[in-house]
Amino acid sequence: MSEKPSPLARNPLDMIAGAHAVQVQMCDTMERIADGLPDEVDRRLCAEVASCLQFDLPLHHHDEEEGLFPLLRARATPEDGVDKILERLASEHESDNDFASEIAEALEALGQGGRPANPEMLGYMLRGFFERYRRHVHWENQLVMPLARLRLTQEDLNTLLARMNENRRQAS
Predict the structure, then answer these.
(1) Is 124 left (phi over 0), alpha (psi -120 to 50) or beta?
(2) Region for 81 from its dihedrals, namely left if φ exceeds 0, alpha if ψ lies in -120 to 50, beta otherwise
(3) Is 9 helix (H, G, I), strand (E, B) or coil?
(4) 58: Cβ contacts below 8 Å, ≥ 6 apart
(5) Peptide bond into 38 cis (omega under 30)
(6) Angle, CA 117 vertex, CA 113 and CA 122 arms, to 5°
(7) 3-state DSSP helix/strand/coil percent for the chain, to nearest 5?
(8) Quick check: 27 and 148 in contact, CB under 8 A?
(9) Range of the domain at 80
(10) SS3 2
(11) Which residues contact 171 (CB under 8 A, 6 or more apart)?
């Protein structure tokens, strides 16, 4: 017999949407950092963004790829055309994680009081990442999330929430 979810448990799709909102804020902060290079850098913001890039972003991608995307593939109809969209998003997750790791390293150094060896390059990297990532989140918000809200059942949502909770246990 499966355990009944707590009525206080949040809807996992709302949690994913909330993560998307935080990611857009992260992109805005990255833009502020890039605009302030090399001399007007808020070290606290650099450390916060580095942490988000190293921990929150990969966890969120894992939630989508191991939880949301398989459930959506199982429930989508052929007319939804979801396979190619999800393949592209998963591919972007992989390259975004690699790029985010590289940027996080530079931002961590800035957060600890260092100066960028090449501020123009770091600014270029930040801009490349946040512009691309804003588009990525927009795609997910416009295509994936409405379809997930339409197609996923309560049982699917319970499965997704359990998967997300397990991801957090493994990450800690």
Answers:
(1) alpha
(2) left
(3) coil
(4) 97, 100
(5) yes
(6) 90
(7) 85, 0, 15
(8) no
(9) 12-171
(10) coil
(11) 55, 59
**CA geometry: angle 110, 115, 118, nearest 5 deg:** 110
Q: Give the CA count within 13 Å in the CB-facing half-sphere of 4.
A: 3
Q: What is the pLDDT of residue 172?
A: 83
pLDDT reported for residue 139: 95
CATH of the domain at 68: 1.20.120.520
Residue 7 covered by a domain: no
- 100: nearest Cα among 41, 27, 10, 3: 27
Give first-to-last CA distance, the chain, whole Å.
28
Q: Residues in the chain with pLDDT < 70?
A: 1-9
The confidence score (pLDDT) of residue 135 equals 97
The residue length of the chain stands at 172
Number of domains in the chain: 1
> According to the model, what pLDDT value does residue 8 have?
47
What's the token pair of residue 152?
A: 């996923």
The pLDDT, as a whole number, for residue 9 is 61
pLDDT digits (tens, 9 = 90+) for 132-165: 999 999 999 999 999 999 999 999 999 999 999 9
